[in-house]
Amino acid sequence: MLAASAAPRIDPKKRAVLDHRKQQFAKAQWVEQDYKHRMNFYTVPPTGDVTLEQFEEWGIARLKVLAELEACQFRNKSPAETEEYMRPVMEKHLRLSSNRSRSSELAMERKKDHYSHWTLRLAFSGTADLRQRFARLETQLFKLRMQQDDGVEKKAFIDSLPMSWETVGDEEKSRWLDELKAATSVSKTDEESWFKVDWEKVPELVERRQVLMKRGTAYVHVREQVNMVVSEFSRTLESGLELAARFLPRMDEDNRLSPILHHLSQSFVAPDAGYSEASSISDMASINAGSIDALSENFPLCMRNLHRELRKNSHLKHFGRLQYTLFLKGIGLSLQECIVFWRKSFKLIADGNKLWDLCFTIHALTLCTDKFKSEYLYNIRHSYGDVGGDANRRGKGYTPYSCQKLLTEALPSSGQNHGCPYRTYTPDNLSTLLQSVGVSDQKLLREVRDDVGKQRYHIACNKVFESAHKPELKKVQDQKLWPASELDTILHPNTYFKRSFLLKNLGKVQSGDIGVDGPTQQSTE
Amino acid sequence: MPHAVSPSSEGGSSSVREDETMSDAPAQEADVQNNAQPDAQDDAGSQGPGALPTTTNATSTRLEDMFDGDDDDTDEFSSSAQSKPQDSSQPAPRAAPKAQYSEPDTLRQFYQRLFPFRPLFQWLNHSPTPQPDFQNREFAFVLPNDAYIRYQSFATADLFRKQCLQMTPTRFEIGPQYSVNPRDRKTIRKASSFRPVMKELVFDIDMTDYDPIRTCCSKAAICHKCWQFIVMAIKVMDAALREDFGFQHILWVYSGRRGAHAWISDKRAREMDDAKRRAVANYLELLRGGDHGKKGLNLRRPLHPHIDRSLKLLNPYFQKEVLADQDPWESLQQAEKLLTLLPDKSLTAALQKKWDSTPTRTSNQRWADIDSVAEAGNLSTLDAKKLVEVKQDIRLEYTYPRLDAEVSKKLNHLLKSPFVVHPGTGRVCVPIDVRRLEEFDPFKVPTVTELLREIDEWDAKNRGLGERERAKVEDWQKTGLKPGYVAGLLKEEGRGKRERHEEAGAESMEF
């Protein structure tokens, strides 16, 4: 008999229902969902309207939270530390109130949580690597929130989930009580309540012999329920991401969302940080060409390295100059002072008194006048938005480069020094460089080497920062001088500088007396 | 190549396992009879080949030149009478054993006449018609020149048999079923789409892991005394797999020299991924590598029901097989080891003192000494309850199964197939009936040469029978292999099928 004829015929009316995609889009469901629980399993995609700005903003906010969570993990924080660290971060970016709080923002918060999850799900479904990372972090976030959740609401949420477990009845319980207790190591104070699942659902508990096994059924204690929910969440999310990846090509037709999604997924390499005007310290201290040398103590390694190279060779190649100029602009150096700074830096060649310097003198002098003016000067002014392009559109020129930018751009070739040294230097050279700027802690150097090996460049940089400012950070934390959000992971060289500068001048900032040491006379050349 | 035979016609051959396996034999015999082509029986012995064209064609050429094909219609009197004494199976006792077991001729005869390809096929295929279960299954051959060929796969059992006859592998291993035919693995575009999808859950117990605790033999050698460790292991594992995990189709196989393999063919077991396999393996594994020494086993108390049950199962064995037979702490040096397992200084000091004064004590006595010395008040850090726990740990250390767990943890791990010949000993890797576990004697498992000789002897003895009668007797039926060993596989396979609800019961046995 032919196999095809053996298949039971499906009633035509019923058959239409089988295609879930058709079912899903059969009638437009562009409705706002109401969120009964604080937690969300994210099984249903959002169907309400959302503006493009919200789409991106919410995604970025969630990304920030996930990035901080990952940073905690990279720094081997204990669960308790992580929770403490994450609380203000989540409060700031992705607040979720409980039902009890009766917050008026409740619906909005939950909508934001829901939509941002789906935004990122789209953004990170592209490659297997991103999917895996996203699923891991989302699972952690889910777990973290689960722990913070109120007991009653947590129970209500768990009960609302379509999980395939069955509570162990009283009769069965009394029959196996001793074995149940022995298997699940229940102490006297614990609740005597178990549920049954197929053992395949809880392999990690079986592996540790934490469940009672009876003919393929695992008897699990209720305290494991949260873990099971979390692993179920992880499972559904992983399969959901695979599914999203398959639908991703459809997005190509939408030229509004693709750039946003691309940008978001890029941000995952190192979370992007926008440059904010607040990174400048020009309001606290006057910065001029002469004070850069002193301030370079507070520069992050990428900029400090450029500064050292500049001082050593009296020259920097184009991309190094660009990176450094923008950074200097970011810390509050004015255009005029910046031009002075560069001109003086290049001119130093002529002041050298070694024999071969003579050969360069003529060249350098020419450089000062012609080449500097024609090329370098223009570039500096261009960076500041003083010249070039359409005057209406150039605004304030380029923004200073973030860590993400430095970590994703092309690697420098020989003679170039731009980029993030944690990425561009070999581990040995990096150690030498760090030691030459005063990092001598062997343990820290080993950790840096380890992080760099795992491509966690910004984590390594943050560790160096924390080590360099240990006493100040402790003081700030102990006295709660700064809000916690000011102590999150550094993702921008200018943030690094600002924070470093403020910490080193902790007492002076408060008394309003910051004098930057060094020559203050203005060069008028 | 099923040819029916009436049970009564096999009385002449000597069978080591016949008596033990007869209990379930009648049912199996009946099955085998059903399977045989009735017309082959009815027509005539000379027409036999016609009933099974493929197999007979494949074999007949070789039957001609070296053997009297019993279902062949050549002049059997002359050929059988002359060829048998010089047959390749005959010089067995004189030749060096190892070379001879893996002699291509011997192996070819083994595969041709004895190896149960059909049952093996059914066991792996889970259906009468070839399925991807079998067709995409990896086989790995170890050739007589020690070459190792992986990723072999076969569309049917006959093709499999053909290649075995051609290559005469000294042994072959069974791997997982892959998502695509393993032979085509290089032609697919994406390497990631070639992945293992299912395999039986397997366990490997090897006597070498028992070397720290056995006193009778070491390395590859085994004796009846230390075989008891395998018996204990099978008991404990079988109980756990059946009662805890609910597996039903568990096939235990003697590995040919010094251990046993378990093949679990339940659908649920076959479809497990690596994480689940690891979970099962770790659930069952208690003694991880080497000496545990003072640390003990770090078991939670109260004991997990699985360990508790295992301990109850093992207690009688500890008294007899370990303390009495192995006598692991007989000499003073050996007793040192027992002392290191006791984490109480004053207890060990008191025991040491006692044993120094009476150096000749059996392990049984030393074991009893622990309690008597402890009762005399020589405990410092331990209380009576803790001492019981320490003693439980020691008992487990000396009796609990020692698994080669890595084999079980990976879906794509290969394991030697049942029924192949162990190249070192020449013994056939026969299934072990767990219900008659104690009766299984690894030294009575037939070697390939013995089996071939048995065929020859049977043929010689029954030369008087007519052609027709002789044609009805399968080669394996003339040997000690009948019928229990093959029945073991058939039984597992038959049950597996019923579970799948694919075919009607009668139909399922037809092949």
Automatic annotation (TrEMBL), chain A:
<dbReference type="InterPro" id="IPR007238">
    <property type="entry name" value="DNA_primase_lsu_euk/arc"/>
</dbReference>
<feature type="binding site">
    <location>
        <position position="403"/>
    </location>
    <ligand>
        <name>[4Fe-4S] cluster</name>
    </ligand>
</feature>
<feature type="domain" description="DNA primase large subunit C-terminal">
    <location>
        <begin position="297"/>
        <end position="497"/>
    </location>
</feature>
<keyword id="KW-0235">DNA replication</keyword>
<keyword id="KW-0004">4Fe-4S</keyword>
<keyword id="KW-0408">Iron</keyword>
<comment type="function">
    <text>DNA primase is the polymerase that synthesizes small RNA primers for the Okazaki fragments made during discontinuous DNA replication.</text>
</comment>
<dbReference type="GO" id="GO:0046872">
    <property type="term" value="F:metal ion binding"/>
</dbReference>
<dbReference type="InterPro" id="IPR058560">
    <property type="entry name" value="DNA_primase_C"/>
</dbReference>
<dbReference type="GO" id="GO:0005658">
    <property type="term" value="C:alpha DNA polymerase:primase complex"/>
</dbReference>
<dbReference type="GO" id="GO:0006269">
    <property type="term" value="P:DNA replication, synthesis of primer"/>
</dbReference>
<feature type="binding site">
    <location>
        <position position="461"/>
    </location>
    <ligand>
        <name>[4Fe-4S] cluster</name>
    </ligand>
</feature>
<feature type="binding site">
    <location>
        <position position="302"/>
    </location>
    <ligand>
        <name>[4Fe-4S] cluster</name>
    </ligand>
</feature>
<dbReference type="InterPro" id="IPR016558">
    <property type="entry name" value="DNA_primase_lsu_euk"/>
</dbReference>
<dbReference type="GO" id="GO:0006270">
    <property type="term" value="P:DNA replication initiation"/>
</dbReference>
<dbReference type="Pfam" id="PF26466">
    <property type="entry name" value="DNA_primase_lrg_N"/>
</dbReference>
<dbReference type="Pfam" id="PF04104">
    <property type="entry name" value="DNA_primase_lrg"/>
</dbReference>
<feature type="binding site">
    <location>
        <position position="420"/>
    </location>
    <ligand>
        <name>[4Fe-4S] cluster</name>
    </ligand>
</feature>
<comment type="similarity">
    <text>Belongs to the eukaryotic-type primase large subunit family.</text>
</comment>
<dbReference type="GO" id="GO:0051539">
    <property type="term" value="F:4 iron, 4 sulfur cluster binding"/>
</dbReference>
<dbReference type="GO" id="GO:0016787">
    <property type="term" value="F:hydrolase activity"/>
</dbReference>
<protein>
    <recommendedName>
        <fullName>DNA primase large subunit</fullName>
    </recommendedName>
</protein>
Automatic annotation (TrEMBL), chain B:
<dbReference type="InterPro" id="IPR014052">
    <property type="entry name" value="DNA_primase_ssu_euk/arc"/>
</dbReference>
<feature type="compositionally biased region" description="Basic and acidic residues">
    <location>
        <begin position="492"/>
        <end position="504"/>
    </location>
</feature>
<comment type="similarity">
    <text>Belongs to the eukaryotic-type primase small subunit family.</text>
</comment>
<dbReference type="Pfam" id="PF01896">
    <property type="entry name" value="DNA_primase_S"/>
</dbReference>
<keyword id="KW-0804">Transcription</keyword>
<feature type="region of interest" description="Disordered">
    <location>
        <begin position="1"/>
        <end position="103"/>
    </location>
</feature>
<feature type="region of interest" description="Disordered">
    <location>
        <begin position="492"/>
        <end position="511"/>
    </location>
</feature>
<keyword id="KW-0235">DNA replication</keyword>
<keyword id="KW-0639">Primosome</keyword>
<dbReference type="GO" id="GO:0003899">
    <property type="term" value="F:DNA-directed RNA polymerase activity"/>
</dbReference>
<keyword id="KW-0479">Metal-binding</keyword>
<feature type="compositionally biased region" description="Acidic residues">
    <location>
        <begin position="66"/>
        <end position="76"/>
    </location>
</feature>
<dbReference type="InterPro" id="IPR002755">
    <property type="entry name" value="DNA_primase_S"/>
</dbReference>
<keyword id="KW-0808">Transferase</keyword>
<dbReference type="GO" id="GO:0046872">
    <property type="term" value="F:metal ion binding"/>
</dbReference>
<keyword id="KW-0240">DNA-directed RNA polymerase</keyword>
<feature type="compositionally biased region" description="Low complexity">
    <location>
        <begin position="1"/>
        <end position="15"/>
    </location>
</feature>
<protein>
    <recommendedName>
        <fullName>DNA primase</fullName>
        <ecNumber>2.7.7.-</ecNumber>
    </recommendedName>
</protein>
<keyword id="KW-0548">Nucleotidyltransferase</keyword>
<feature type="compositionally biased region" description="Low complexity">
    <location>
        <begin position="78"/>
        <end position="93"/>
    </location>
</feature>
<dbReference type="GO" id="GO:0005658">
    <property type="term" value="C:alpha DNA polymerase:primase complex"/>
</dbReference>
<dbReference type="GO" id="GO:0006269">
    <property type="term" value="P:DNA replication, synthesis of primer"/>
</dbReference>
